[in-house]
Each structure stands twice: as C-alpha cells, then as structure tokens.
Amino acid sequence: MEFSRPKCSPWRELVLVTSLLACGIFQSSGQLSIVPFIGLEGYRSFLDLENIPEDAQEYSWHRGVSDSERNMIVSYRPPSNSWQSGPMFSGRENVTKEGRLNIKNSMLNDTGNYTVRVDVSSGTHRATSWLEIREEESDPGISTNTTSVVEYMDSVAAFCHTNATTIRWYVSGIQVSSNDLMTISPDGKTLIMLKVGRYDVILRCALENILGYLQKSEQIFLTVAYGPDNVRLRSDPSVFNGILSAELGSKVEMKCTSTAFPEPKYRWIHNGSLLSISEGNITLPSLTWEQMGRYRCIVENPVAQLTMYRDIQIQRKTGYIPIGEIDFYISGSLVVFLIVMTVLGGVYLCGILVYLMINHFSTRTNRAI
Ligand SMILES: *[C@@H]1O[C@H](CO)[C@@H](O)[C@H](O)[C@H]1NC(C)=O
Ligand SMILES: *[C@@H]1O[C@H](CO)[C@@H](O)[C@H](O)[C@H]1NC(C)=O
Ligand SMILES: *[C@@H]1O[C@H](CO)[C@@H](O)[C@H](O)[C@H]1NC(C)=O
Ligand SMILES: *[C@@H]1O[C@H](CO)[C@@H](O)[C@H](O)[C@H]1NC(C)=O
Ligand SMILES: *[C@@H]1O[C@H](CO)[C@@H](O)[C@H](O)[C@H]1NC(C)=O
Ligand SMILES: *[C@@H]1O[C@H](CO)[C@@H](O)[C@H](O)[C@H]1NC(C)=O
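^ thats the input. predicted complex w/ 2-acetamido-2-deoxy-beta-D-glucopyranose below
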C-alpha cells in the first residue's frame, strides 16, 4: 500500500476548518455532530466532531447508539489532560485534544454506530454516527496487447484491471492524459498509445482509493525498435566532402556507427560489389589501386525495417592526378577536333585553289584559242 499523503485530506481539513468557523459563528444554534467517515481496512480512520461546545470537560467515545459506560472505548478530559480507556477499547483507539476519535489499523468489524458524549459545565451534548470500514481494493492488474513495437509505427493498447473508478496512467514514470499520441478510454481502464517513442518504455496504471491513496499496478516494459537515425563515419585519414584521400600503400580505416535498437546490421559495398564484412568498421592495411573507388556503408535495422547508407570515395592523395587526367582528356579531344578542322579546312582551301587554277588556265587557253 502507498503511504503518500491522502488527496482527500486537505479537503477534510477544509471541511473541519469551515465547520469550526461555522461553529464559532453559530455557537449557540449549532448542534454537536460527527462527520461521517468511510475507511479502509488496514488504514487509519477518523471520526471528527462538528459544532464542538466551548469549555468541554470530557469527550467520551462509545460503540453503538448509547453512551453507556459498558460501551465506552476511550475518553479524554481536557482540564486534567488525561485519557481513560473503557471496556470496548481495543488498543487501537484514542481521542485527540480536539475530541476526534482516531482508530489505527482499521478492521472490518470496526464498522458500526459510534456515539460521542461531550460534557460541558452547563450540561451534556451527544451525537451518533455510522462508521464504515471497507475492504481495500486489490492493487490493479495491467496487461498490453503487445510488448514489442516499432517506434512511431505501431500502436499499443494497455488495460488496467480494476473495479475502481479513478484510474491514472503512467508512461515511464510520468502521469499521462489523452493527447495526440495517446488516448485514454472514458472509463479510464484502457490506454491506447497511437505512436510509441523510444523512451515510452514503462507502462503502469494506478487506482486512487477512497482515502485518496494510490495503489499501483506492476510495470510493463515495452521493447521499442528504433533507428538507425543517421550514419556517422569516422575514418583515418579523415573524409572531406565525401572524399578520403590516401597514399598508395598507406593504411585506411573507416568506421560507421549509428543509433538504433536492436543493434543494426552493417554491410559494405565497394564499386558495386558487396564485401564480406558485416561490421561497421573496415581496415585496409595497405591501400592498393583496386581498393580505391566508391564505398557505401549500409546500416540496417531489420526489426524497424529501416536502412540508411553513407558513401565515401577513396582517391590517391596527390591532387593533380585526376585533374591532369581531366585536362589531358579535354585537350586531347580539342587536338583531335583541331586536327580534323585543319584537315577539313585544308582540303577545302586546296579544292578552291585547284578550282581557281583550272579556271585560270582554261580561261587563258580559251583566250589563246
Ligand atoms: C492517547 O494518546 C496520548 C498521547 O497523545 C497518550 O498519552 C494516551 O495514553 C493515549 N491514550 C490511550 C487510551 O491510548
Ligand atoms: C474484530 O475482529 C477481530 C479479529 O479479526 C477480533 O479480534 C475482535 O475481537 C473483533 N472485534 C469485535 C468488536 O467484534
Ligand atoms: C445504527 O444506528 C442507526 C440509527 O441510530 C440504527 O438504525 C441502526 O440499526 C444502528 N445499527 C447498528 C448495527 O446498530
Ligand atoms: C494493439 O492495439 C492497438 C490499438 O487498438 C492496435 O492498433 C494494434 O494493432 C494492436 N496490436 C496487436 C499486436 O494486436
Ligand atoms: C470486479 O468485481 C467483480 C464482481 O464484483 C469481481 O468478480 C472481479 O474480480 C473484480 N475485478 C477486480 C479486478 O477486482
Ligand atoms: C573492426 O574492429 C575490431 C576491433 O576494433 C577488429 O577486431 C576487427 O578486425 C575490425 N574489422 C575489420 C573488418 O576491420
């Protein structure tokens, strides 16, 4: 059982204070009475007085509807500050200086009528009330329709098994109410988590009993599969703009990591071929020409059915090589183009020359004729 402060207690105090105030104002007209109380087996019960007369000489509490001596439980005399127990005293009762009857460790058979007699110098006041002690509600049970979910994909329905009407739900220790991620049924007994986050792992319900104490269920632990969130890469030498530049014969290390649950699977692809490495790290002890090129690190969470990857290009360190190759390629084609153009242009020019010469000579020949 819980020993947190009962929620109804401040309310009860308030009732008491208000009634005492009322008592002060309507002293003469107010009649002594006992505040009815419903208690729980095993807990403390109280019978408070309302409209207490001034200058009380003795408060005496009795079982039943009469204030006979043989029914007396316990009495208190304010003038001598002394207590006296009676035949019905069980060892669990006492009267406070305000006349309240306290019963520790209430039992079901404490249920019944109680009568208080308050003696004042001018006479005697009596009041009778009914005290009811109920069996404590058993702690609620809890169950869910599943305990394994994928983050933000699956829904979970949780059920609180109790006959109580005031039910609270806790997700990872925090009390929850209906919101856009979860709904609680009108009777409070079902919690549906529409989307489950990776930190929403502990479910618990609690009932609030009539004394305001919380009685909590066991905890249910969800297994939430999540990630990979992203692929992080650490390498030696380090990568800049997706490019890892290294000398031939040097050592290259690459390591992919990722946040995921369960532990994700790693795969590596080099220039389109799957490598036989199933770890996040790859070590090339002495870089060769064949080991250059494009690497892809693939991180897969088979439970969440989510895969992410990251690409790295390994190149020779000396920067002019690729640029030189590109320059050569361009100038080579230009040369070819120029050669072709020169040849074509030359052929054209020769053609014109030959034509002009033939024309010239034939003209001269014509004139000569
Ligand atoms: C009631 O409580 C007072 C202390 O608060 C104690 O002195 C007294 O003996 C108690 N009376 C009985 C009958 O247990
Ligand atoms: C109440 O029950 C307890 C045992 O459960 C017993 O010892 C006690 O005498 C009973 N009291 C009355 C008033 O019947
Ligand atoms: C308690 O008191 C009420 C009214 O005074 C009476 O009707 C009832 O029978 C009593 N109950 C018991 C169990 O004595
Ligand atoms: C559990 O209940 C939720 C909400 O009703 C439902 O969406 C989900 O499919 C259920 N899961 C299983 C495994 O039955
Ligand atoms: C709810 O009450 C019924 C009948 O009163 C009982 O059979 C059942 O066991 C109770 N359930 C719980 C969880 O206490
Ligand atoms: C990955 O790292 C571990 C320890 O750091 C090492 O034992 C293992 O050989 C490495 N695997 C590869 C493929 O480099």
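The helical segments are 8-25, 320-368.
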